[in-house]
């Protein structure tokens, strides 16, 4: 039976400022959802709150994965449960090699009961899998020995996120503007990567301003956010409409949220970047 | 008291792993507590030393009593010199086979993994237990080439001419209070002589173990690297966990002659009741290279600033130091580079980590004397502070008497970033594992300088320090 992630009436504050004001959303394994909305509407906030960033305070609502209360778990427990965020701005961790990091991550996610200091997955098995996935993403073997995101170009950072997605095989993946800041070729590599990984075993929520990623990964559902709420849900054609015409018509159909959104009107950047 | 200590170390989680201790009832000799001329004369007599050494000891004792306690660095107010055993001999003999070493002692070294390491990747080993070296080995081919690797007491008997020539010349007893103390009561330590042109491929290792409560360990090491020769010497140190203090106050003197190379690696992991007050100094002559790699993880207070005196043109000095200050610990560590000659260069890289209220200080001196033109020195110190209870300080001293020199100093202090922790945790790493990974990454540039086996050990020690400590 496919897993279901149910978000109910989710309210989130950052530093005392309410950002999400009642989000309802149901994701099932195997589905692709697009989440769109102007800057500051709360898209990234939703993604951060779902994976458990400590600065995102849940003030109301519930998130449930097949009967498990997701909000009661730490970030690492959520990862082990099968949630994954591809970061818009991945951080640099100096001195930590990509391969070491990934081997620890996989050992925990595949063996959720693992405690620190316990055995890691076999080096042989890990290397083989890493090599296969890196080749599929057109990454040089040397990449595995580099320090995590240190000196990476924008495109390399995004590829690194998709590599993690490929290795960790989450049940639900949230892609936060994975296509932003990339040239056409890089978008293609990332899009094809996501396309290959998304399947019956993975539910995907693609947060984007653009349609490029959606061309390769056609969503069954499109959601549009304004002022911290999902105001419309439709099919792939809604994404197309937003892409062609912007948010003008959506705003017209939802004047109250549009007015609230206009006040926000700021660039939506994670509070911590 | 012993039992709970043993249990804790055997679980090995979060705490000090080497805190176990052995019974002392079968010991060959334990001096009475305290320090005076009679004790010093007794040590010298028991060792059957020549008169010049006895006289040097007694003269040094006078200097020790005259010199005031240092009023800088760490808190030494709880250190009671009259409450210490200055000379403890666990065994009457030094053995060439581990099978001959008394069983209690051998078991200790087995638990520390020394015999195993010796088989795999060392050219020679000295194991010092309390005041005396209890085991020694050196590969036969090295001995044939004229390499001497022995304990300093044996060296005084067998190579008296070399000791008379060099002993206490790099660090005279008048240098500082603790150098005077060591010169008065020294026992054990390593003596190494590498003849001209001989390159020793694998490291020589010494392992220092304190077992008795309130014990003072005062090993004295002298290394002479002759022209064009090279050696890598490694020392490790541990002690049991007691509630009262022990004192480790070593003196290490090194001479690296023309074109020679010496690397001295320390991985100090004393238990948190040990005062570790050590003077280490090398003199590097024309085109010689002296490198100190200094890892300080344990002790209550460490004050240690390995020094290189760059005596002739072309000499290079380098210190890489890692300090980890946990709960109740103060690591006051750094380096000294003294440019005595022109065209000499030095580099200091220091990384410190403080956590659970620990305090890590970098204290370093770069000195260029009058006439030492065209010198270069580069100092980089980075500190990582893991929580708000912990502290880091930097005390860089620069004394330059010449204009025509290039001195660079960079320092950075960072707190463990919440975003880095979150990123790793969002990939399934527990908070402790994520912190350990960030710390391991922080010291990676230094750890990769260590021989592989020690790099693994260093990372393992850091992980142990981090385990169970968060949340």
The name of the CATH superfamily of chain A reads P-loop containing nucleotide triphosphate hydrolases
- Give the CA-based shape of chain A: globular
Give the CATH architecture of chain A. 3-Layer(aba) Sandwich
The CATH topology of chain A, please? Rossmann fold
List keywords for this structure.
heterodimer; A: 273 residues; alpha/beta; Rossmann fold; six-stranded mixed β-sheet; four-stranded antiparallel β-sheet; 10 helices; 38% helix; disordered C terminus; B: 471 residues; twelve-stranded mixed β-sheet; ten-stranded mixed β-sheet; 12 helices; globular; disordered N terminus
Topology diagram in text:
The complex is a heterodimer of chains A (273) and B (471).
Chain A: E1 4-14, E2 17-28, E3 32-36, H1 43-51, E4 56-65, E5 68-69, H2 75-81, E6 83-86, H3 98-110, H4 123-136, H5 154-168, E7 172-176, H6 184-197, E8 203-207, H7 212-216, E9 221-226, E10 229-234, H8 236-245, H9 248-253, H10 255-264
Parallel strand pairs in A: 3-8, 3-9, 6-7, 7-8
Antiparallel strand pairs in A: 1-2, 1-4, 4-5, 9-10
Helix pairs in contact in A: 5-6
Chain B: H1 2-11, E1 29-30, H2 37-46, H3 51-66, E2 88-89, H4 103-112, H5 114-121, E3 124-129, E4 132-138, H6 140-144, E5 148-151, H7 152-158, H8 160-166, H9 177-185, E6 190-194, E7 204-209, E8 216-217, E9 220-225, E10 230-238, E11 246-248, E12 251-256, E13 261-268, E14 274-284, E15 289-296, E16 301-304, E17 307-310, E18 316-325, E19 330-339, E20 345-354, E21 359-368, E22 376-385, E23 391-400, E24 406-415, H10 418-425, H11 431-447, H12 452-466
Parallel strand pairs in B: 3-7, 6-9, 7-10, 8-11, 9-12, 10-13, 11-14, 12-14, 13-15, 14-16, 14-17, 15-18, 16-19, 17-19, 18-20, 19-21, 20-22, 21-23, 22-24
Antiparallel strand pairs in B: 1-2, 3-4, 5-6
Helix pairs in contact in B: 2-3, 3-9, 7-8, 10-11, 11-12
